[in-house]
Amino acid sequence: MTDKKNLRTPIVCVMGHVDHGKTTLLDKIRGTAIVRGEAGAITQHIGATEVPIDAIVDKLGDPRLRDHFIVPGLLFIDTPGHHAFTTLRSRGGALADLAIVVVDINEGFKPQTYESLQILKRFKTPFVVVANKIDRIGGWVSQKDLPFAATFKKQSYDVQAMLETKLYEVIGELYNQGFAAERYDRVTNFQKMLGVVPVSAVTGEGIPDVLMVLLGLTQKFLEANLQYSAKGPGVGTVLEVKEEKGLGATLDVILYDGTLKKGDTVVIGSLGEPIQTKVRALLKPRELSEIRYESKFQQVNKVTAAAGVKISAPGLEGALAGSPIRVATEENLDEIVAQVKSEIDEVRIDTGSVGILIKADTLGSLEALVHEFRKDEVPIRKAEVGDISHRDAIEASTVEDPLYSVLIGFNVKVHPDARDFLQESTVKVLTSDVIYRLVEDYQKYVKEQQE
Ligand code: GTP
Ligand code: MG
User: Fold this and answer.
1) Any idea where the Tr-type G domain is (predicted)?
2) How far is the CA of 81 from the centre of ligand 1 (A)?
3) pLDDT by residue (tens digit) across 119-141?
4) In sequence order, what DSSP letters do the residues of 385-398 get, joined into one string?
């Protein structure tokens, strides 16, 4: 059997459309785990929550399962709306080991549902689909915290039929997106088929089932990926660059490998040369609440993967969300700087030739956009993180071919001077907070031009 001590906590990203219930689902997993989990405290991280395996097994209701699972717990990352991309990048691959895609069973698929699926497909991340808000199905009689099969049995025939109808709409949509899927308890081979778990994040119905499927996926897919050395140098991804009162610019980071210590030299991606700085303080949330709403932190001397942590250090202002952060030593500093630089350059393009201009809010979203446009063989003149500036506007206007005199903006602002300039110009500006909408809008624009 695998040595448990050498497995790190799998990172689970919760994705899906706005308001479909990602945060509520996490709250429920966390909340019920706290209530029931004498077995072990839930640890709050920056931008993430760690639920220890004992608390999860406790929810599954069969203690014999404990020996069956080899991971120390699960680290859940909530990705608010459009931030899905930021949080997914690591070494040009997926930050998440696993994912949950939440879809409101009554509303069905929405733009960010499709988007989540595309990303997961691209990175080949194993995931489970949660068909949420089953308590809103007309006539549903809620059975607090029960597993799905138990609550389903208690519903009337009509309600059961309604749930199945809605569920198969979700399954049909998944099929259209290229995924074979089934209600999770009808899946015989999770390597070939996606499981869909009907859930209510509010009443807790179906939550034990979600945890069970997640643990099943870790066992099947991840064992090899989770082997790591806690002694190795820390490697992580920057989730956000945030101003904190009294601290200046800080980084919210998910550490996915190794150890990060106070005083360590770290290298972080920026728009120019990578930032080199020394960790002044490592901060964790003080209590069991999401860091986004938290103002008080607790200092720690070191963190070990997988974990979320806030880093305070001098000179973090220019750091890029979505970029890598790596611990360096005196001996390998140059090497690490070069490595971080090449990781950033992989995404940024500056060819100076004919093509569209792309601006995005994070490295992760930029990478996804570049990937999509390249897939369609659309030439790109420049792709960069940041708002649309006056310079970008001028640059786009110098492109003569109207098909490429285009500025694409994902989750970015248009500077006022750029806006003034663009109003007078023939540059086509497309902005959105949905990547696939930008791609579609561009295709539509091209069609119009060609008619
Ligand atoms: P963003 O972070 O904005 O992307 O949204 P989200 O996906 O995190 O959704 P959130 O958890 O904030 O839920 C949105 C609304 O739906 C809230 O009012 C929740 O109370 C409600 N909600 C979430 N899950 C359920 C559910 O299972 N049943 C019912 N009835 N309401 C739910
Ligand atoms: Mg949320």
Assistant:
1) 7-223
2) 12
3) 888 888 999 999 999 999 999 99
4) ES-B-HHHHHHHHT
Does residue 301 contact residue 261 with C-beta atoms inside 8 Å? yes
In angstroms, rounded to a whole number, what is the distance separating the alpha carbons of residues 393 and 182?
48
Atom of ligand 1 nearest to the CA of 201: 27
Question: How many degrees, rounded to 5, is the angle at CA 344 between CA 343 and CA 350?
Answer: 125
- Name every protein residue with a CB atom under 6 angstroms from any ligand 1 atom: 16, 18-24, 80-81, 132-133, 135-136, 200-202
Instruction: Say how far apart CA 307 and CA 203 lie, in whole Å.
Output: 29
Binding-site residue numbers for GTP are 16-23, 78-82, 132-135
Tokens of residue 89, six digits? 């990048």
β-pair partners for 394: none
* Bond before 306 cis per omega within 30 degrees: yes
Cα(298)–Cα(310) distance, integer angstroms: 10
AA identity, residue 115: E
Q: Does the reported pTM lie above 0.90?
A: no
DSSP E strands in 288-415: the ranges are: 297-300, 302-304, 307-312, 324-328, 349-350, 356-360, 380-385, 406-410
Helical axes 435-450 vs 111-123, angle rounded to 10°: 100
Nearest CA to ligand 1 atom 28: 133
Q: Name the residue with the closest Cα to ligand 1, atom 5.
A: 19
Q: What is the pLDDT of residues 262-286, one digit of tens each?
A: 999 999 999 889 999 999 999 987 6
Mutation pick for ligand 1 pocket among 17, 18, 23 (CB with most ligand atoms within 8 Å): 23
Q: What is the ipTM of this complex?
A: 0.99
| Nearest atom (ligand 1) to Cα of 136 | 30
Q: What's the longest Cα–Cα distance across the chain?
A: 70
What CA–CA distance (Å, rounded) separates 140 from 363?
Answer: 43
Contact criterion met (CB below 8 Å) for 104 and 40: no
What are the DSSP calls for 186-224, one per residue? Answer: G-S-TTTSEEEEE--TTT-TTHHHHHHHHHHHIIIIIGG
Q: Phi and psi for 405 in degrees, rounded to 5?
A: -80, 65
Residue type, 225: N
